[in-house]
Amino acid sequence: MRPTTLHIMLADDDEDDRLFFKEAFEEVKINYRISAFNDGEQLMNHLYETNNPLPDIIFLDLNMPRKSGIECLKEIRANERLKKISVAIYSTSSSEQDIEDTFVSGANVYIKKPNDFNMLKKILSDVVHINWQYITDGLNKDSFILSL
Amino acid sequence: MELYIKYNIDMMCKVLLQQQLDKFNIDCKVTEPGYVKFKENIPMETYNKLIESLKEFGIEIVDNQKSILVQKIKNAIIEMLYADKGVQSLKISSYLSEKLGESYRTLSQVFSEVTFISIENFIILHKIERVKQLLLTENLSLTEISFMMNYSSVAYLSQQFKNITGVTPTAFQKIMKQKRYTEA
């Protein structure tokens, strides 16, 4: 099955970061649509509502009030309906241990938030294009690991 | 002077289309509006030129010939990477153009257009995918895998693995093991 539009969800409590994120996607060649949420709780409530369409990939900020990125990730992986969705973690930490722990918890992509906007553009477009390959070619999602 | 003109759009399109097709010496017939029957297959190069010349008139070919070609390229690459005997040392461009009967330039152009990544990147991505699979399922050392996948050295394999996934092959194995453990 080949979706024509990539549906992306983002949960980040920082308004500026959400804005940068959306702007950065202008580089991406694939058709996409972004739904943004202000925190993990809002995102999860939306995902648990069975009438809402599921995204192809979710970007989670690690540090958010009420529900952190890791908590969301664990809930997503524990949920039968949601577990197949690609999850990208978006964090300021670049410690090897944090990265490994995030992957062990089931993340597919680990992104160290860059300070430079052009870098962010490049990273996000890489993630989305590679994820697109996993969708269109049915690659094994279980071993899909990408750290940028 | 003023003139009032009456025209038949269907007729116009049909004539225009036939003229364009004739320009390429393609043996075919516009049998009904929006449908062209070809006597034989045309080379990709001619096909691409045809698309270009039709674009000028706002005519687009509704088909997935490109997608079909891309699928053929992908299949050929996968077949190569998953060969029982391991990956043979051969030049990928000549392998693909020989197998598919098109120039490598045409192949890579169509490929990037449809998939948004280059053939080279697709191969690297799938090669690493295959390495991942071998790391997780077969009891092979990294040296054996690098030999099997025709890497010039283990160091090069490790480096490419790290470039693509962001983690080393050893870290990957560790992560997947822990992941399986926590899921079980």
From TrEMBL, chain B:
Ranges of residues in domain HTH araC/xylS-type:
96-175
Query: What range does the record give for the signal peptide?
Result: none
Q: Which organism is it from?
A: Flavobacterium suzhouense
Q: Which UniProt keywords apply?
A: DNA-binding, Transcription, Transcription regulation
Name of the protein this chain belongs to = Helix-turn-helix domain-containing protein
UniProt xrefs under InterPro entries = Homeodomain-like_sf, HTH_AraC, HTH_AraC-typ_CS
